[in-house]
Amino acid sequence: MVYTVCVRVLRHREEAEEATQDTFVKAYQNLAGYQGGAKFSTWLYSIAFRTAISQQRKHRNPSLSLEDIQGNEHAIRPEDPSDARDRKVLLEKALSALDPEDSALMTMFYLDELSVEEIVTVTSWSTSNVKVKLHRCRKRMFDILKDQLKEEVWTLNVD
Amino acid sequence: MDTERGLNQGKADEALRSLFKEAGHSIAPEGMDARIFSRIAVTAPSGIATDRPIIPLGGWIGAGVIGVALIGSAVISPSATGAGWASQSLQKMPKLDLSGILTSPWVLAIVMGSIGLFALDSILSRRRPTSVTH
User: What is d(CA A123, CA A142) in angstroms, rounded to the nearest whole number?
Assistant: First the structure.
């Protein structure tokens, strides 16, 4: 999950690897600073997020091709999104349309199911800011996905 | 509203969560763990503070010896009477008859009432619906 956050923010495979390594080294060095007030995963997430943001500002490389995300393993066929891999590509495409931080925010909320309060801890944004960003990003993603996934996305089974 | 095809936020959340779950996490490349461990190995030790115990080992041993000595002096007889000061002191204390208390109707009513309330609480908590997350 640390790597996922780094990939979302940095949108560059090698830089995400570097940020992931830095995250764990920083966590190891600052283990004494973990007070137990939040979950350990949330604490680790906050280090990963800050490290990735810091690295992003250093490199300023927000561009990531879909091929880079997918490892060039599958061609994009938005006209046939019935395959799970195609839906994954479309999801990545929708996420790449968001700001890198917002992309990480959506991943934290929907994939890792962090609560708004935990996201506030990770990002140091205000609660209202997190809620507004979630609302806007959700709407933005729907705008992107609605035509390509048509009705299919709404009929997916929810675990 | 239009862009969300009339879906409410709960359904929108479910659909997006389903998509995210299906896509899963990005998979870290091979050897990432080894690279992290090799970097940690050459990193300065973490600043984990190992606080000194409030009571050192010698203190615990001393307290144990004193405790054993007190128990011994209370139990073992120092005199010819055959009883230590603990049993001598117990003999001097007034005797309390508890048989009347245990058969009191008030005590029985309190016990029965408590059992009844615990049973009621247990039944109600079983029938309580589980919370539904969005």
Answer: 24
